[in-house]
Specification:
Helix content is 41%, strand content 10%. By secondary structure, it is an alpha/beta fold. Strand 3 and strand 4 form a beta hairpin.
């Protein structure tokens, strides 16, 4: 009895599989499938299924433990779980008959019965018999799983009778059926359940199966199961049905016909296959192996299911197909890449059309192989084709396999390449032809839009051939040329009118009257009017010129490298043997340097190229510069180098400087990042030498093509150099075949030597004039930059002399001349300067005489001479020198004759010497030319020196710029910082030494002292202390001169004192009395007596004083900063900066200037003054000038920023002009009455009618609005169609209403609508921008604006209401006053614009942007009417408010919360209250033209 605590063991059954067996004669060539059926049931996995099992065995195999001398096999057991959850174990026995492989007779066994008797046995016994797996197991039992038949004996519980229903192998089915019948009879005797398995149904013969079914139907309880061991169909069902017959408690399985079961099984296989293939698709590398992938996927259920159903072999085959497909895809991709790369290779190797135009493809291949760059583009493989070699795996090798060129695809690419070259040649020819066409059109002016010119060239052959893009590109190039030429001519014109600019003290700023005078004169010049359409650029050039005039240096000279100072220094350095006067020269022996160590930083091999170029110009690494030999040690550092400069820094190699070379935005970015890293590391290790390493930015030339990015590279390079406070060396003008020019390298080396000198601070302090040298006379020779003669010509009278020698160290622009004058040998120091450098010398330094050189071929040169001479004191002798080619020029060229004659007249009137130098003559190059002048100077020497009084003012300003011995701090502007203390000799110029659009920035440590301007540049908030020497130098005036009593000359007319006062009032500017409480001395900034740039040119009055706006650091919000003015309290009786000294004795006279001595100079000045005040008579001019000197200057009421003409006439609030209230009031009343009278006359005689843009007659456009609408349709049909089209198709179009549409399309839209009002805009194939332009043109053509003129003043008054709600309700009431027709259309348009603004995230058209585009169309302002100009910004803001508050104005909606942009706080009565105490804005004295120019485009490269 079984214990209760033990669970019953599952039942165990033994099933014997029987069927036709025996010799080949009995069963045929193959068995009936008993072994396969057993194999599939016991081991159902595909990898464990063996389709071949043999019954022919050797005696040894038969006697082995698997067969064990028995004619039956033990297949093992299977544990099966029924539907009722009960497990059972099934042992499988296969009854067969093994044949001896020698005798081909059945082996002899212990059981000698026939198969039919033996197969029906129910008791089987075989000691230690092992489980059978496959035929390969026999003899190798130890290599397979070894499992014994339980207890060596089994009792059979049922039989599976196998009948083969396939065609059979040399066997008759009837014989098999007869054998089966006999076998069944024996089996039935055992009383055990029997089931028939119809095997091999996958190869079934239908009538065989029917016979088997008929056989079974004749027997009792005999079922047939249609099976296929190969496809594992109904195998398990067969054995399960037999188990149910043994154990009736189990559920009876449903026996399914073979075909239905096969479909179910195949669907299972197909699903598993799909899942497995998707799994394999995840492998993307065609190099992957099955072993690697199978190990990764072995635990995946989809992988295991497929392996069980189909087996590893099929899985591997599927994987191999996928890998091959990946490989073919890779090859196809590489082939496509090669084909796409072929045009580039052809452009490199076969770029010359003349060479290949008549070559066939094989000839072209041979030609390519001969090219030196062939190996760079193609690779010749040893094995072909290329797609069967390992070249397909060389992804990094972009070269094209040469055997690919043998394909038809490659030949087709070649043919296309030839055709492209032919068409490109034709295109280039047509572009040049079109360029010549444009050059022939005379009326094209600088800045003229392409649209205005296009209609004149539409019939041109070249224009028709080239594309729109090409035509615009050619026109842009043409525009650049004529604009550049116009700017050069404009600049030349400014130099010709130099007297307009050079009548104030150095480092001053022009006053309001001065700017008015300048514009009045220039406005009459054609060269001024030529830039009418580029008025911002013209104003920028003018301001740049003014900035240079009042703050001149050679670094900011408008002539660039043609600056006279630079050329003189170069010539003197190369021509004279410098003598050692015991001082250190600027370039020689700086800190005892004979060897210069340089780093060269670059990218893509640029550093090495520059190093090679320098070595090419050197001899054995020795470089000759300015008369001295330097040994150069160059260390190129490329971007690919693993080392930073700081890591290459060793004790044995300490660089004196670093050249940073770039030729692209990427290389410039690399330089900026590298320098930032170096300086960061230097600050971390506190290496002062490394932190102060001088950098020099060098722009490499763009070889073989004209780079369109060159202006961008130049601008970005200047910006980076500005930020880093280092020099920027541009590509020299002209055509160079190399990337680097010799002048660039020399300039860079000089900069390094200057920086080293400044860093070591080895130059001794500048001595005062008495200690300078032992020169008897000091002469200054002046010449103009850019004059058409060589410096060698004007210096040849001195350099060709044997008595010429070098000046003392540090004076690179001076020479010494030993010459006998009178009875003694005199030592003359001659300093050669440009006129702009001489400006500071004429008052501040002791000069015994001037040699003024001008070109007789250039009016500007004479203009500059006149301007300079007008401020020179008449006690100083002057020699005028005219330069031309030959004496024949005087008779052959009227312009030269006029200039030479004028020079002679000036010399005669001021009692000066005059001579001429001829480039084709040698006589005039001798020193004797100036003998008489030197004698005259020597004669007046004592008088001149007595006039030069050295008082305490002079001593306190000894640090001023000395032309005879330059300050060491002055020599290196790029590396001079702002003064840290009062001991510093001189601060660097607060203008940029690089260009007009960048500004020198302070060092990072001084950033707290500076604020940002509009461009993001920094400027000092407080430029210098109140008692700074530099300030005193900039504003000092020469003391009164005390000459010796001299005999007055005859024939010198004295000028009327009243007339002198008139001229001084017109040219000079006078301080004015303060109109508000004075600031304390601590609060005063010395820059306050300069007019601030924007106020000087474009002062807005009555609108807002928030002129400067700077972006916030954290967000891109604009913060407006109010202007602040601190007015100095100075006396108003001083003239032109000269104090009135009443303590002078009657014997002393103050020297006048040559402009008062020369009729020519005076007439010029007088004509300018009268031209600037042409509205008054001579007497009124005198009175007005006196009133202006006393009266307050009032700013204009107009808005000059929006005025298209005469922008210079905007009010200028100059704090240097005093005020007299009574005179001011009288003048204001008089002016007001006059203006009123003018207005009345204008209203009677003139009405403003805007010009129509149409060139055809229309019965719709240009008609009154009332004629286009009806009560039923209050909106004009054309407006409705345009708005519907825009809202349906283009509401999200970027720049809607801002981007101009095609004007031709706009005209066509209106013309088509004129002909047919029912036309559909959608059918016209026009752009949204064209429709938008046509809509705006509709309103522009109306006889009266949509918003009536009579309501404009009310809108302006309402906009000034401070309370937002009150202001909006007032505007709403004004809108109700519109004519009903205007109201309906205005409501419709504003509603539409409101919808457009709602899409501003995509179209970027906010209400503000839309109002800017639409307010002139809706309000039609008369820009010639000055009353309109002062309200332009207000009117634009009103339209913005209508768009934003559309729902409130027209649909009774609520007021939206928006930023208040309409109301403007009126200026307070007390100007002091306008000063922002937190962020006072105080600009440094120099003009900054970039503040007045339109803002430049933002940085695209992200460098700065």
């Amino acid at each position: 009895m079984m214990a209760k605590n033990k669970e019953p063991r599952p039942p165990s059954y033994a099933i014997s599989v029987v069927g036709l067996s025996g010799t080949e004669k009995d069963k045929g060539n193959c068995g009936v499938g008993k072994s396969c059926l057993c194999n599939r049931f016991v081991r159902s996995k595909a990898d464990e299924y063996y389709p071949e099992h043999t019954s022919v065995l050797s005696t040894i195999d038969f006697g082995g433990r698997v067969v064990n001398n028995d004619h039956f096999l033990y297949w093992g057991d299977v544990t099966q779980c029924g539907e009722d959850g009960i497990d059972c174990k099934i042992h499988i026995i296969e009854q067969t008959e093994f044949i001896d492989d020698q005798t081909f007779l059945p082996h002899r066994s212990t059981n000698l019965q026939l198969y039919i008797k033996r197969a029906a046995a129910t008791k089987l016994q075989s000691a230690e018999k092992l489980m059978y797996i496959c035929t390969d197991q026999l003899g190798l039992e130890q290599d397979f799983e070894q499992k014994q038949m339980p207890e060596g004996k089994l009792s059979v519980d049922g039989f599976v009778l196998c009948i083969d229903v396939s065609q059979g192998c040399n066997r008759k089915f009837d014989d098999q059926l007869k054998f089966v019948n006999n076998l069944y009879i024996q089996l039935s005797k055992s009383k055990k359940p029997i089931i028939i398995a119809a095997t091999k149904c996958d190869e079934c013969v239908d009538h065989y199966l029917r016979e088997v079914q008929a056989f079974a139907s004749n027997k009792k309880n005999l079922q047939v199961v249609e099976t296929s061991a190969r496809f594992n169909v109904n195998v398990e069902t067969c054995f399960t049905a037999l188990i149910q017959m043994m154990d009736k408690t189990r559920g009876k399985p449903k026996i399914i016909p073979y075909l239905d079961a096969y479909k179910t099984q195949r669907q299972l296989v197909v699903t598993a296959t799909d899942k497995f293939e998707k799994l394999v698709q995840t492998v993307r590398d065609y190099h992957a192996t099955w072993k690697t992938v199978s190990n990764k996927l072995k635990n995946h259920p989809d992988y295991e299911e497929y392996i069980n159903l189909e087996g590893t072999k099929k899985a591997k085959n599927t994987f191999s197909k996928h890998i091959e497909q990946l490989k073919q895809e890779h090859i196809r991709k590489r082939r496509d890449e090669y084909i796409n790369t072929l045009p580039r290779a052809f452009n490199t190797l076969l770029s010359n059309l003349e060479e290949i135009e008549n070559l066939n493809w094989p000839e072209a291949l041979k030609l390519m192989e001969k090219r030196p760059d062939f190996q760079r583009c193609f690779v010749v493989l040893e094995k072909t084709p290329w797609d069967e070699t390992d070249h397909i795996d060389k992804v990094n090798d972009r070269r094209i396999p040469f055997d690919l060129l043998s394909t038809l695809e490659a030949e087709k690419v070649y043919q296309n390449h030839v055709q492209h070259l032919i068409s490109e040649k034709r295109r280039v020819e047509m572009k040049e032809k079109f360029k010549k066409t444009l050059e022939r059109i005379q009326f094209i002016s600088p800045g003229q839009p392409w649209e205005e010119v296009m209609c004149f060239v539409m019939e041109d052959e070249a224009f028709k051939y080239i594309t729109e893009v090409d035509s615009r590109e050619v026109y842009s190039r043409h525009q650049r040329e004529i604009v550049e030429k116009a700017k050069e001519e404009f600049q030349e014109m400014l130099f010709e009118h130099s007297e307009l600019f050079y009548d104030l003290d150095l480092n001053a700023t022009p006053s309001s009257d001065k700017m008015s005078e300048i514009h009045a004169v220039l406005n009459e010049e054609p060269r001024y009017k030529a830039l009418q359409k580029l008025s911002p650029d013209r104003e920028s050039l003018l301001l740049k010129h003014i900035g240079f005039v009042y703050h001149p240096t050679k670094e900011t000279c408008l002539s660039g490298q043609n600056c006279m100072d630079i050329k003189v220094e170069q010539l003197l350095t190369n021509s004279l043997l410098q003598l050692d006067h015991g001082r250190l020269n600027l370039y020689h022996d700086s800190a005892n340097i004979d060897k210069v160590n340089l780093f060269i930083l670059g990218k893509d091999g640029l550093a090495q190229e520059l190093a090679n170029e320098i070595r090419t110009q050197s001899t054995d690494d020795e470089y000759a510069l300015d008369g001295k030999i330097y040994e150069l040690d160059l260390r190129p550092v490329d971007a690919k180098s693993p080392y930073l400069l700081s890591q290459l820094w060793t004790s044995a190699f300490k660089p004196h400087g670093c050249f940073c070379v770039f030729n692209s935005i990427e290389s410039l970015n690399f330089i900026g990042e590298s320098i930032g890293k170096i300086r960061t590391e230097a600050s971390q290790i506190r290496d002062k030498y490394m932190a102060n390493l001088p950098f020099t930015l060098i722009l490499a030339n763009q070889r073989e093509s004209v780079s369109k990015n060159l202006p961008i590279l130049r601008h970005q390079g200047q910006q980076l150099a500005n930020k880093l406070q280092c020099p920027f060396i541009d590509v020299p003008a002209g055509t160079y075949t190399r990337k680097f020019n010799e002048a660039q390298i020399k300039q860079a080396l000089r900069g390094v030597l200057e920086a080293v000198k400044h860093h070591f601070d080895v130059v001794s302090p500048v001595p005062i004039i008495k200690d300078l040298s032992e020169a008897d006379l000091r002469i200054v020779m002046c010449a103009m930059c850019g004059d058409p003669f060589s410096v060698d010509l004007i210096l040849s009278p001195f350099l060709d002399s044997h008595s010429c020698s070098a000046a003392q160290a540090g004076q690179n622009n001076s020479l010494m001349l030993d010459k006998i004058i009178g009875e003694k040998r005199r030592r003359i120091q001659i300093t050669i300067l440009s006129y702009h450098s001489s400006i500071g010398v004429r008052k501040d330094e002791l000069v015994h005489g001037y040699i003024l050189v001008y070109s007789a071929k250039r009016k500007a040169s004479m203009g500059m001479l006149r301007a300079f001479l007008s401020e020179v004191q008449d006690t100083i002798p002057v020699q005028l020198v005219a330069v031309t080619d030959s004496q024949a020029d005087f008779f052959e060229n009227e312009a030269i004759k006029e200039l030479m004659t004028e020079g002679e007249h000036i010399a005669t009137e001021i009692t000066a010497k005059f001579t001429a130098l001829y480039s084709l003559s040698q006589y005039h190059r001798q020193t004797e030319v100036f003998t008489l002048f030197f004698s005259d100077v020597l004669e007046k020497k004592n008088m001149i020196e007595n006039s030069y009084v050295s008082d305490s003012t002079r001593e306190s300003t000894h640090t001023s710029e000395d032309v005879f011995l330059h300050s060491p701090k002055r020599s290196s502007i790029a590396y001079s910082g702002y003064p840290d203390s009062e001991d510093d000799t001189e601060a660097p110029p607060p203008y940029s030494p690089i260009g007009d659009d960048v500004q020198l920035l302070p060092a990072p440590s001084d950033r707290s002292k500076y604020r940002l301007d509009l461009e993001g540049n920094e400027y000092p908030v407080h430029s210098t202390p109140l008692n700074c020497h530099d300030h005193e130098r900039n504003h000092k005036v020469p003391p009164p001169i005390k000459p010796k009593p001299i005999v007055p000359k005859t024939n010198v007319k004295k000028l009327d004192p009243n007339l002198l006062k008139t001229i001084e009032a017109g040219i000079g500017k006078n301080p004015r009395k303060s109109r508000m409480p004075l600031a304390s001395a601590d609060d005063l900034d010395q820059s306050d007596n300069y007019a601030e740039p924007i106020d000087t040119i474009f002062k807005l009055r009555g609108v807002t004083d928030d002129i400067y706006a700077v972006p916030d650091d954290s967000q891109n919000r604009m913060i407006k900063i109010q202007n602040s003015f601190a007015i100095n309290n100075v006396q108003g009786d001083e003239e032109n900066g000269f104090p009135d000294r009443t303590s002078r004795t009657h014997g002393e006279r103050r020297p006048s200037k040559y402009k008062y001595k020369s009729k020519t100079l005076f007439s010029k000045a007088k004509s300018y003054y009268r031209r600037a005040h042409s509205d008054a008579s001579d007497d009124e001019a005198f009175t007005t000038s006196k009133m202006k000197r006393k009266g307050r200057h009032r700013g204009s009421e107009e808005d000059p920023l929006l005025s298209p003409v005469e922008t210079w006439k905007g009010g200028i609030d100059n704090p240097a002009i005093t005020s007299d209230q009574e005179l001011d009031d009288k003048k204001l009343k008089k002016k007001t009455m006059k203006v009123k009278e003018d207005k009345k006359q204008k209203k009677k005689t003139k009405t403003f009618n805007p010009p129509t843009r149409r060139n055809w007659e229309s019965n719709y456009f240009g008609m009154p609005l009332q004629d286009l609408v009806t009560p039923e349709k209050p909106i004009p049909l054309f407006v409705e169609k345009c708005v519907e089209f825009i809202e349906n198709t283009g509401l999200c179009t970027e720049g809607l209403y801002r981007v101009s549409g095609n004007k031709t399309d706009q005209d066509n839209i209106q013309k088509q609508f004129d002909q047919d009002h029912s036309i559909s805009l959608e059918s016209m194939d026009v752009t949204v921008n064209a429709v938008a332009g046509a809509l705006k043109a509709f309103f522009a053509d109306l006889p009266d604006p949509l918003i009536p003129y009579n309501l404009h003043p009310e809108l302006v008054d309402a906009s000034k209401i401070l309370d937002k709600t009150e202001r909006l309700y007032e505007l709403k009431e004004i809108v109700k006053k519109f004519h009903p027709v205007n109201y309906d259309v205005f409501k419709y348009v504003i509603t539409h614009l409101n919808r457009v603004s709602q899409q501003s995230r995509t179209n970027f058209m906010t209400a503000d942007n839309l109002s800017i585009c639409f307010w002139p169309t809706l309000m039609r302002p008369d820009f010639e009417n000055r009353e309109f100009l002062s309200t332009t910004k207000i009117l634009q803001s009103v339209i913005e408010t209508f768009i934003q508050q559309c729902q409130f104005f027209f649909y009774n909606g609520d007021i939206l919360e928006t930023s208040d942009s309409v109301a403007h706080q009126p200026p307070p009565s007390n100007p002091v209250q306008m000063v922002d105490p937190i962020v006072p804005l105080q600009l440094p004295p120099p003009l900054q033209p970039q503040l007045i120019q339109p803002q430049l485009q933002a940085d695209p490269l992200g460098i700065i």
